[in-house]
Amino acid sequence: MQGARRYGLLSDGGVRLELTPSTGSPLAIDVSESTEMRIQRLISENPVIIFSRSSCCMCHVMRRLLAAIGVHPTVIELDEEEIDALPAGQDGEEGGDGGGGGGSGGAPALFIGGTRIGGWESLVALHLSGHLVPKLVEVGALRDMVL
What we know:
Layout: E1 2-9, E2 15-21, H1 35-45, E3 48-52, H2 57-68, E4 74-77, H3 80-83, E5 109-112, E6 115-118, H4 120-128, H5 132-138
Parallel strand pairs: 3-4
Antiparallel strand pairs: 1-2, 3-5, 5-6
């Protein structure tokens, strides 16, 4: 993050901010941190996180499914060159969905509790198998509901 050094009102009603690097905030981004390190840090700091390309429709659908069960994931949009820095899933696979579901392109990529789940198809499979909600409860992203 950067700190606001000064600001001023613009004629169109907007605000102009001049930003200066800051390390005093817990949200500060270390510019010397590599893309891989930043992605790993974000994965470890967020129980449910989706890495996506800009304007990814599958990411939107994934967010809607998770929101329907009461989870609001952190969503990070990556530049094309940053997508290659996403860690592979178990056994070195990249999500295996294809068709925009987080397969060979690497995004969208859903991580729950630090583990790569994959893309849209993997999320739906986890949900339909009945394992999604228990996994979300396990990582603290969803409260255990007693019925």
